[in-house]
Structures are given as structure tokens and as C-alpha cells.
User: What shape does this take?
Amino acid sequence: NAKVVVSAKAPIVLGDKIVIRNGQKGIVSKILPDEQILRGVDGKPFDVLLNPLSLPSRVNTATLYELALGKVAAKNGKPIKVPAYTKPGESRLAFVKKQLADAGLSPTEEVFDPVMHTKLERPVTTGVAYITKLHHVVESKQSARGNAGYDQNEQPLRGGSEQAQAKRLGGLETTALMAKGGYATIREGSTLRGQKSEDYWRLIRQGYKPPEPGAPFVFEKFKYLLNGAGLNARDLGNGRLRLGPMTDRDLAAQQPVEVKNGKMMDGDSLEGIAEGLFDPRMVALNKWGYIPLRSKLPNPAFEPQIAQMLGIKEKDMRAVIAGEMTMKEAQEKGKI
Assistant: This one.
């Protein structure tokens, strides 16, 4: 019997996972040509740049120690053996600092950007470390959110069952991402992994480049909830909304259905009663509805602004609406 050993090499692609020998893991987020990569004082481009897009307390301190000792070993031309355990009273940090001092090296150095032709404002920790690409690659992970369960808001189900495999992005992680400028990661969590995107994952599995995801369903639902609260949420694009009062003109533009009675469902057919709260035109055709009032009233969502413009207090304005006080009395009271 012959034993054949095949050595295969696969290039790193975006999304692959790499690991430093001490166990610190990372994701390949960008691949740059040599002429664009940052350079050290010797003019040589760096092989790997580690982005501190994480919680500082989660960073393995051995990563920094390995970088520093690797720099010393590269200068001296021989490896440095580090004991697995330190003796009582000894400090691993003190050992690393002594090695650097003996070699006349610093853990940080000035870094230059060849694209902008500038020097970075502060020195950066540099060194030498073993970095390995893990066996599993990103291509085998791309359908992670393709066939799972979703709730009524088209968000992944939570709970840990077979159909509920959502991973929570909590407030601490979100704050850390915002502090480090990881807005693209937050956007991906909302628009891809955080909502139903079956067409997106289907195109990826078929080998096509999917289009940019649109606004999540919950965002559209939020806008309609604002409309129901009397706020006209005008979409300015790029996730920006301009809120104003919902007026009769805005309502008329929706061609609403007049609700003339408080009836809901027919007990025999289980269908909505015409001109009632569940009029089929509103339920089936997704049209707006409105209830005509005997007299015009201020928009409840803008009562504070209206009272301020009239120079009266909110409670006095409500008294005027209820007929308990005249407008002149409310304005005179506001001057006192």
C-alpha cells in the first residue's frame, strides 16, 4: 500500500479566519496591494495589520508579548524560549521589556502611509508573529442565514432551537463597534443577518453578486407606526427621516377609506364589515382609514409646539379645547 500526502494551498479571501499562534483570532476584512499597505521605519510594507475593532479587555496580552519578542528574535537571529509558567514575584511584562531593552528596540515605531504620503499621528505597536489561516474558509459559511425561522417582524427567531438560531448583538458590543467606527458591521447586522434576506442568500449560493440590501422590514414598520401616531415621516434617503405633523392634506393624498361605524367582523363569514374598523378595503388592499371629526382639533403629537407658538401652557390649551377656558383667558394667564 502506498500512502500519498497531498499539500494544498488556498489563497486567503475576504472573510477568512486567521489566528495568531497564541490563540488570538481575526477576520480578513481587506486585502491591499503592497504599494498601498502601511510601512515601517525601514520602508518595508507590513504583512498583516490588526484592527483593534473589539473590546480591549478581550485582546490576549500574549499577542503583544509575541510581537515584541518576535522583533527581538528577528534582530538577534535566534529564537527566544519563554517558560510556560513564571516564578513567584516574576512578571512576564518585565521579562519582555528587558528583552527589548537589551536589544535596543522599542515595542512601537513610526508608521507611514504610502497612499497619503503622511506619517501616522502616534507610533504603532509592531513586531513579528506566526499567523495561520484556519482550515475552514468563508465560502462554506455564506448560507448561514439562508433557511431559518423568522418572526412576524421578519427577524431571525431566538431561542436556540433548530429554527431559532439568531445570535444576539447586545448593547455592549454595539457600543464597542460604534466607538471603533465599525458602522459597516452594525449595518450588516441589521440589513443582512438581522432580517429575512432569502433572495440575497440564494444569489450567493448560485454564485452571483447580490445587490445591496434595502431597509429592514422593522424600519418600514417603524415609519408606519410614526404615521399612526400623527407624525408624517418623510424619507430623505440614506436612513434619514424628517418628522412633521400629519395634516389633512397628507391624509387625503393616501385616498383613505372613511370609517363610519365601530363594527369589526361578521360572525358568520369572519370577514370585515364594510365601513367598519376592519373594512376589507383597508385589510386586503392595505389602504388607510380615517374617522371624520365634528370640529378641527390640534395634532396631539404636536401639542407642546402648538402651545408654545400660542404662548400658553399645555394644560390651558387642553382646557380651551374642552371649552373650559377661552383662548384669551389662556393667553392672559400665560403672561402672568
